[in-house]
Amino acid sequence: MSYLLLIFLIGIAIYYAMKWRPSSDKNQFGRSSDSNPAGNKRATGTDTGPYSNLNTSRQTQSSGNNYAKWIGGGLGWAFGGPIGGILGFVFGSMVGGSGITNGQVGRTRTGDFNVSLLILTAAVMKADGKVTHSELNYVKQFIANNFGNELAPQYTQILGDLIKQDFNLQDVSYQIKQNMDYSSRLMLIQFLFGIALADGKSNNNEISVIQAISSFLGIFKNDYASIKAMFIKDINSAYQILEVSPDASNDDLKIAYRKLAKKYHPDKVSHLGEEIKKAAEIKITALNAAYESIKDERGLT
Question: Which of 37, 110, 131, 276 is most buried by a 10 A CB count?
């Protein structure tokens, strides 16, 4: 009889142990009402977290992984400071758990450059107070031509979110200036002009914003004028590209050409990837064309 009583008591103990098992154990078997580790989505799939106003299609795990592929592997100093704050707001919970670690101060990485370009591009596109679908399409095509068709949809989607955000352009630019080498900053200005004129039109408000960015980034006026002359032509564009006046001597012209060819050599931005290096070659091509144009004009050989 005592054995039966003992078995009965053991059975009762097991029953209550199972009944009062912690809810965290239940989650392991999928019976919890919220199986999302972030705790932001209800059973219906509606996002009720702090970033619920963002496009819900971007809040899937696969989207988070897609962003991590190009940010996680190449993001250093841009993960902190004002830029890091912007990224955290835009990406929200997608950043969490996607393998992105704290940024490290050091040489500019591809991710640092690309993120900086996207944020500055957003500032330029908002210069006239409106952004049209046609502008986004032109920018998407520009991004595809310079960074490849595979990344273009992601970059364009991120850019669309950045355009919706308000941020301090001067603070962002200063962070870039403090961490990015001069040659890479020159490439940012070149890309911004390319994007601003991607539709074949020159908008004064956008050009003014690029000029302000150039100043914030610590770009010398002659260098800014040289890059601008690549895209906005006038009678003295060739001289502006070479950063000399029309009355410069032939010797001064040659010295200026050699100096700029060294300054803009594509190898100086090779650490940013082949796409940026190829874009740097465009500047060298412009220098060569400007030099040859002036030589022809002066009858030089």
Answer: 276
